[in-house]
Amino acid sequence: MTALPANDIVGTKSSRRPTGLLLVAAPVLLVCWLIIWPIISAIIRTVWLPDTAGERRFSLETYQFFFSDQYSINNLMVTLWTTAVTALILLLICLPIALYLRFATNRIAAYVQGLAIFPMFVPSIILSYAFIRVLGPNGTVDLLLNAVHLPHIRSPYLTPWGPVLGLVWDNIPLTVLILLSGLGNVSNQSIEAARDVGAGRIAVLWHIILPRISNSLLVAVSFTVLGIFSAFTLPYVLGPAAPEMMGPFMQRTFRDLNDPTTAITQAVIAFGFCIVFGLFYVYSVAKNRAP
Length: 291
Prior knowledge:
The chain is mainly α. The protein is 76% helix and 2% strand. Strands 1-2 form a two-stranded antiparallel sheet. A hairpin with a 5-residue loop joins strand 1 and strand 2. The longest helix is centred in the first third of the chain and has 42 residues, at 6-47.
């Protein structure tokens, strides 16, 4: 079989390059139109404000107001707290589930996987209603405790823990699937070799499994944080009226207070926190694709 000359190979690659660029042009333009441009437009709108004469000027008044307003700071803090606690609980719950699904060989694993994926098909509003009916005041748990003459428990409904429980349940499927995909890179041979030299379960987990799935853990946390930080339905229905998470806070500022500039400022600040975890995700993807 005759090999092609080097200049023919270079010419072939050069001729294919415009075709590849044309294939990705449409989605790139769509992302720029629907995502990049609205972000740039929002930032410009919050720093280029009209004065009393109607002329626009550069100003950071809206950001100064946000970080000087205690109510806005409280809403940001409760959002960060909810995001951190929910992400931590999700890892503590989903990592054992993913480990069991990866190494289990019995039929029960199929049922466990079905139960773990089931919340993906339940709409958030239905989940909120079920949460209220089960854990809310005079809900199923209260009725069962009353039937056996036990004291009532304090319901997490309309407290900061309400959105945490709802968001944990809602994000279990995606987190389990991401971790399970990462565990596919862990070979049985490496685990068996570690056990042959006397490594216990904790040592295997710490030295063999976790280093192999570090990127998957980072991706799972990034997706979880991005989803929780922008959540609206569960915090709006299950959370307290004050302080509230950024999603309901932005919606109320825009609709009830009729203040779109302040609402956009809140959105830009929320985007600033989310972009940090977005960069972690991009770094993880780029690291995996690096030669």
